[in-house]
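Honest question from a wet-lab person: if I give you the sequences of every part of a complex, can you actually get the arrangement of the whole thing, not just the pieces? Trying it with mine:
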Amino acid sequence: MPRIGVFVCQCGNNIAATVDTKKVAEEMAKLPGVVYTTDYKFMCSSPGQEMLKKAIIDNKLDGVIVSACSPHMHEKTFRKASEAAGLNPYRCEITNIREQCSWVHHDKTKKTGTIKSTDLTRMVIERLKRNRPLTKIKIPVRKKALVIGGGIAGIQAALDIAEGGREVILVEKEPSIGGNMARLSETFPTMDCSQCILTPKMVEAELNERITLYTYSEVEKVDGYIGNFTVQIRKKARYVDEALCTGCGECIEKCPFKAESQFEVGLTKRKIIYTPFPQSVPNVPVIDAPNCPKIQKDKCGACAIVCGPKCIDFKQQDRIETVDVGAIIVATGYQNMANERFGEYGYGRIKDVISGMQFERLASSSGPTGGEIRRPSDGKIPKSVVFIQCVGSRDEKKGVSYCSKVCCMYTAKHTMLYSHKVHDGQSYVFYMDIRSGGKRYEEFVRKAIEHDHAMYLRGRVSRVYEKDGKVIVQGADTLSGSQVEIEADMVVLATAIVSRDGADTLAQKLGIGYDKYRFYNEYHPKLKPVETVTAGIFLAGTCMGPMDIPESVAQGSAAASKALALFSADEMTRKPVTALVNRATCNACWDCLTACPYTAIEREDVRNRQGETIRWLARVNEGVCQGCGVCVAACRSKSIDLRGYTDEQVFAAINAF
Amino acid sequence: MKIKLAKEDIESSKIQLIERVSGEEMRRCYQCGKCSAGCPVSFAMELPPSQVMRFLQLGRVDEVMKANSMWTCVGCLQCYARCPQGVSVAAVLEALRQIVLRKGTDHERIKDVPFPFMKSAPQQAIVCGFRKFVS
Ligand SMILES: Cc1cc2nc3c(=O)[nH]c(=O)nc-3n(C[C@H](O)[C@H](O)[C@H](O)COP(=O)(O)OP(=O)(O)OC[C@H]3O[C@@H](n4cnc5c(N)ncnc54)[C@H](O)[C@@H]3O)c2cc1C
Ligand code: SF4
Ligand code: SF4
Ligand code: SF4
Ligand code: SF4
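Yes, you can. This is the full assembly:
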């Protein structure tokens, strides 16, 4: 005969107002196998837990029921207390008589609430009687991390993990790490030069012995689960041997052909064999294969002739490498919305309408104009520049409904840079609201207006057109209620920040969620901001949504600390509520395999002594199984059960009603 | 209303004069509207205080000159007391009046003021009125 104890909680008045807890305890005492019952004001309090422990020991209980709030709240608390008193924690069960009973009953006579609580508790008692003691699952953890994306968020995460003493693989799809930040001129709100604060970190990432860089590489396939991921990385053909190249740049010098530079956002051209920018990490060129006549039609080959260490190999192929890691951090960043999408601003049609990122390059001392603000059409210094904010942002109809968060700030920055470089120039900013939430941000914007004389106009622009060599901007100033026309020399668009092309494909490979804009979903927007629903995969930076550098860096560090916490023990423990296949009855129909949303079911081949496969069986990978129970419902031969919620237990509970 | 805007409008000599006389910088105003919210005669002004500031920021001096705002202002300084940016619209309106009156053009002529009113009004009000409306 089992020896069960039942503890009914009053939860102050939360339960006791509509449930007669004393009566519930008395009723339960009448059931066979129940040897101890009581009610108490707050079971979760220290005295409540002590009482539970003492009762287990004194009465030699082999199972306990706490009828209280939702198991989400205190299942852990009571299982821990039971374990401390020598009971298997999975012999402690919770009946929810608060959320599912007292809170939804208004009968102050307590009649209905008491009946329902009695029923619910009785059902759980029957389930508990059939509970088998379970032991926590232990999974070994590989103490190595993979960071996808080498922008500032990814670099920071990699550096922090390395600092914490663990190995990191940093995968970057471009030829150099650095991401968008490498393009920026100076950065708000302190105006430090972007390259000056970024490149030391890039170099640190390259030199750190715990960090392995895979540049010009992409993640091909991800298998496994928390602590035990296996990842295939495609190293794209660079056509230059990384191990031999000394970075002398002779090849770049001699290459006779050019193509548009993506790094310079199309403002200038680069050679076919190139590094994206002078401080690239690694400082190893790549050949832009589609544009190289040698690779396409076997003509040229100049680079290979001049290369001293002979590291150019036109026959190089993509290579796939497989790595094993315990945690993955996704930091794949953002891109800007296509400027051409808004015909009214004339981008693509009018040469002197440029994007914010192009302005960054114009203002950058390493940019195509050496930091002088010169307009693309004729290289003249523009004396009147109009900045248009919210291009595509906050535009439900044609763009995206969200605010891109950084453009207010970088536009203010642009007006400052402009006024510092062109003293007799005038800048105008069309804005809808000025969003400058952040430390010293509002002061920064006021400085642009009051000190650097930017003229802010509240309203959008409806038309930009050319007339007599000028760019005419037609907008509104709602503060004075007027239509405003400005003759500009150049127009700069603060285009919306959007997710990267292919963000969804990568998410599908990783099994993480994304929103309708393909920004990755955090587990909980407030309390789990860098976690994903897939255990062991974390997020950092703008792949989650628009944010600035300080936020991206903070998230990189946060994600790193999550990975380091995971690596702090050799094994991690998991709840043993997982599916279990009955090997005697499984007929390998694989319905469970298709049903499982976590791909936790594997095919097991059973072999005889000669090593021949004699039959197939479904097997549950306990590291991956989340205990959702979908396979249990799918299995036609009823060969899968969920530990702690077996069919036998569930039917016993139903029968007790 | 449609306006053309250029650096010359924003920094015209007229604006510079107003800034010099008033000691206020137009671009300091961030258009929160608190001055207009508190001004006791805002309702009677063709351009309430914050609008006066906006028009001047845009270099629209002539329109401000034509509006009754500067003459309606009673000089209570509530706008200045409340302005979070420390801007005194009162000083700007005073500057505008000064610019008009210094040309010798009176806004009111003493002989036009009805005698019975002169007799009944407090002496101080009459003195203040002359100071404000007469060159
Ligand atoms: C015009 C402009 C000006 C700005 N100015 C400022 C400023 O002054 N101050 C400030 O704080 N912020 C500024 N920002 C914002 C700033 O650029 C971002 O906050 C920051 O760069 C985000 O870094 P990140 O690492 O999240 O993303 P990214 O910089 O986009 O880095 C992501 C990296 O991941 C790589 N990647 C993408 N997909 C894959 C894949 N599938 N596999 C492998 N690698 C991949 C990319 O190649 C890239 O290197 C500005 C933004 C713009 C548009
Ligand atoms: S072979 Fe290709 S990369 Fe090399 S120099 Fe010729 S064009 Fe340039
Ligand atoms: S940050 Fe400013 S410019 Fe950018 S979308 Fe938001 S409100 Fe518009
Ligand atoms: S000083 Fe003039 S403008 Fe300012 S609140 Fe008083 S009446 Fe209004
Ligand atoms: S209170 Fe000051 S800042 Fe606000 S609108 Fe008036 S003058 Fe401008």
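Two things worth pointing out. The two ends of chain B are 33 Å apart (CA to CA). The first helix of chain B runs from residue 7 to 10.
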